[in-house]
Design a protein that fits this description.
Two copies of one chain form a homodimer. The model of chain A has no long low-confidence stretch (mean pLDDT 94). In chain A, helix 10 packs parallel to helix 15. Chain A is built from 15 helices and 17 strands. Chain A is elongated and about 85 Å long. Chain A has 413 residues and is an alpha/beta fold. Helices cover 40% and strands 25% of the residues of chain A. The interface between A and B is large, with 74 and 75 residues.
Chain lengths: 413, 413
Amino acid sequence: MRIEILTTGDELMSGLTRDGNFQWAGQTLTGLGFDVTYHTTVGDDKEILEAAFATARDRADAVIVTGGLGPTPDDLTIEVAADFFNVELELNQAALDMMVQRFERIGRKVSETNMKQVYLPEGCHTLLNKWGTAPGFSFEADNTVFFFLPGVPKEFRAMMEEYVIPELKNLNPDMKKSCMRLVKTFGFPESEVAQKLEGIERDGVKLGYRAHFREIHLRVSSFGDTTSEAQELMNEFLEDIHSRLGHHVFTTTGEMLEEVVGNILQEKSLTLSTAESCTGGLLSHRITNIPGSSKYFLEGVISYSNQAKHNILGVPMELIEANGAVSAPVVEAMAKGVRNLAGSSIGVGISGIAGPGGGTTEKPVGTVFVGVDSSLSGTISREFHFRGNREEIKLITVLNTLYMIRQILLNNV
Amino acid sequence: MRIEILTTGDELMSGLTRDGNFQWAGQTLTGLGFDVTYHTTVGDDKEILEAAFATARDRADAVIVTGGLGPTPDDLTIEVAADFFNVELELNQAALDMMVQRFERIGRKVSETNMKQVYLPEGCHTLLNKWGTAPGFSFEADNTVFFFLPGVPKEFRAMMEEYVIPELKNLNPDMKKSCMRLVKTFGFPESEVAQKLEGIERDGVKLGYRAHFREIHLRVSSFGDTTSEAQELMNEFLEDIHSRLGHHVFTTTGEMLEEVVGNILQEKSLTLSTAESCTGGLLSHRITNIPGSSKYFLEGVISYSNQAKHNILGVPMELIEANGAVSAPVVEAMAKGVRNLAGSSIGVGISGIAGPGGGTTEKPVGTVFVGVDSSLSGTISREFHFRGNREEIKLITVLNTLYMIRQILLNNV
């Protein structure tokens, strides 16, 4: 079955809005085993839109159209669809009732403008929208089924899941059951992950790579005649991934690195505090993004100046003068200092040169030291040399620090 | 002139990679006054790719194809293009010379695999790639000109600017000269910005809106027979925007809010320190993303626990007990405490409930207090009630805090 996704809107053509609906639909449908063959985007123009419908009808078996179902004059999809299918618009009572109820709940009346949204093409199949105001609909023409959905991402996704995906499955009764997992790895470049996974492909499993900054993400789909068959295939495949990539796999269920670290800290009833220099608060920001992080994250210090390293963290000025602020002894002292200040199980200290200024021949931009102080690890530190711009060096440093904490917590150091 | 952008690659169809090239090209071409009429994406499949070429030829005057020029077996664009244009592939000496030189510089030899990239369709016009290995080319067929460019974003953008845009301008000799600016506003929702700008449209100016979280961005393009005419139109238009939106416009040249604040701090030789609770380091992270921020950002404290508020910042425990950690007196004491600790011109204190837990009837999730202590403002604080998930509340808080600092620095408070 050839599927075409047709996203519409001037804001997409002018690049002002990112076409997240297409990306989500591509991921979801491909993961389920469907073939997304064509993707088209056009602006809010009657003639172009109708031409795009015709092209899609001629080359695809199912067409998913998003956008243009709103109440404003540049929302043209319904009108153009009726012209294209050669039918009239008629008031859709079920859609109107739903809209009236929805508006009553928020104390508003349905305006004349909104009424436009509930006149749908005669003979269409209504897709009621429980997540917003614009109803969707489907229509079959010349053996091609068209689905019309709103462009608001939340509504689009919900209606894809509620109506379109089940219908696509109906149209493909022989389709296999599937199972999807997002595996994340850290510490290997994409080429090395690919090399280690060479030959891992097998029938019934699809593997997609995506470099997500320094993490390599693997989207795995498995297919079987039954869900448990797909699940079993998945388990075997994940085991194989594990045996090839070892501890570099930090999740097979999609969590972020800071979430993985947070979960281990909570399981082990340990607490954390941070002293950051070059990362400027990004480490604590990432850690505190996780709901419930106040249970294990006690405090952070951004000791940008040497004065702060001394005054707050108690790093001796002589130590800074003798070794430089970017050095192993200083980050170890920062880690100890903040652990002591916060009374936490683990203290982390980071100092480095994020650039673009501040580099020297001896310590060029990208030189970073990370220290950890805890009863699990004692006082340790690592020296890194990263490449990238300022924001990239901050981010690489934070990822490596989180990974280092994870390794310590798992006794892998 | 109808332009079609045809982006190719299985990684786009499966949603694993975001189609940033299209978004960039849409923004750039629309801003220059071109009409981007169609955008199509297809995967790495010979038959589909050739069909997409045919559709594009029939409906567009210029087609920009990206991707599939690499050395691997799934890079099919060159081969399919030759078939489609009905010509043979031939060795392109200029492209080969360039590749040999490029590889020599990094001490590599051109492999057989790479040789595939320098066999281009007979009669094409070569677009040499100075930014990577894959040469591009253009070809005219039935009055439609096709441009073939690599998919690597850096190479794609450079070659668009070096070759494609000048050629598109040649094909449209009557096109006006243009001028583009990115205006950013804060503090008004999109509907209010639109209302205040009602009727501002005029001949020779194009205005595009984009809600970027709580900021509303306005992409303005002006067009004239000469560059200075376009520039003059732009200046008048920006003045009109200013008179309608006042201080809510924080830049007309695209800077981020933290950059605007940093610039004013530097101009006025003032320094800043921060004490964050619910934002968890995001404020200091954003501030320290700006190169040179160490000149004005002295230190930050993430006082997640009450203990930290007391121990490091000197907030009296009785004050916390009497008012709660999320209160005006506490954030004012945090601001004073961190200003005192750092010896900075300005101290900022933030405390709030980012959720999802921790809310009460009196102080629901989204309640945030921001305090500032400085000689410009004295000790002041504001109470906010935000909606959103945890990360959104952190971000809204940081934006409002940055905006509050800007207003104080500009004596707008």
